[in-house]
């Protein structure tokens, strides 16, 4: 039997997420904070706060895990956080002459805060729906959460990225069950705040190939262990 969708919990989640986002990007509430890394994190904290509040208020059995299918959190942390941080920091070093390690992990934590909401909570709550319907709902809500409603070509492209990101990151979450994994994938675009060029695009493709290969190989091994012939 399919799980019944708790629309009240989803509304609470989304209202909190949007209020936090609005306060962070549409008001001067964060203007007095001098630490730019803290400002980045506060811009993305809404989905996590909304998810945790909805789970608590409605006493939901909503599973969330940093490690997912892996034996411990060290594996996804190394593959989806350490690996991209080291490679991307290397690109930054050869481009601007310094290692922005703190920025790397701030962006990754930002991705985790969002993914606690979008995948860890909302995707779990909507999993009884047909896949396309679930993806479309999450994409629309995720796009609207950014509070940029101008009907410009760049915004339409952004919605397309959000839609395919919802599909792709959702596949990673379904395959791994790991919030660390989806946070790493989520953060790929956010690493390059000054735009994407040939080197950055190549690195993104390389990381995606490594991650997809790792997921496929690990899942085959995992299934063999769980369901030996």
UniProtKB/TrEMBL annotation:
Enzyme superclass (EC): hydrolase
Source species, domain of life: Bacteria
Pfam families: Rce1-like
Keyword match Transmembrane: yes
InterPro entries, A to Z: MmRce1-like, Rce1/LyrA-like_dom
Listed transmembrane segments: 7-25, 37-61, 73-93, 129-145, 157-180, 201-218
Domain annotation CAAX prenyl protease 2/Lysostaphin resistance protein A-like: ranges: 99-192
Entry EC no(s): 3.4.-.-
Keyword Nucleus appears in the UniProt entry: no
Keywords: Hydrolase, Membrane, Transmembrane, Transmembrane helix
A GO molecular-function annotation: hydrolase activity
Protein name: CPBP family intramembrane glutamic endopeptidase
Source organism: Flavobacterium ginsenosidimutans
């Amino acid at each position: 039997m399919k799980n019944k969708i708790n629309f009240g919990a989803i509304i609470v989640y989304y209202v909190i997420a949007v209020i936090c986002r609005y306060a962070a990007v549409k008001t001067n509430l964060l203007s007095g904070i001098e630490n730019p890394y803290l400002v980045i994190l506060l811009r993305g904290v809404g989905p996590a706060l909304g998810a945790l509040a909805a789970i608590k208020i409605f006493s939901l059995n909503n599973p969330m895990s940093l490690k997912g299918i892996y034996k411990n959190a060290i594996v996804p942390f190394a593959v989806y956080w350490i690996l991209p941080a080291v490679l991307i920091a290397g690109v930054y070093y050869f481009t601007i002459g310094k290692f922005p390690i703190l920025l790397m992990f701030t962006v990754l934590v930002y991705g985790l805060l969002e993914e606690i909401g979008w995948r860890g909570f909302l995707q779990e709550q909507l999993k009884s729906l047909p896949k396309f319907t679930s993806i479309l709902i999450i994409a629309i809500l995720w796009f609207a959460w950014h509070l940029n409603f101008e009907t410009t070509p760049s915004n339409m492209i952004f919605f397309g990225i959000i839609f395919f990101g919802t599909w792709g990151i959702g596949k990673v979450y379904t395959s791994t069950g790991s919030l660390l994994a989806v946070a790493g994938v989520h953060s790929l675009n956010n690493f390059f705040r000054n735009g994407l060029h040939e080197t950055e695009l190549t690195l993104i493709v390389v990381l995606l190939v490594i991650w997809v290969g790792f997921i496929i190989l690990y899942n085959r091994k995992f299934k063999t262990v769980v369901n030996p012939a």
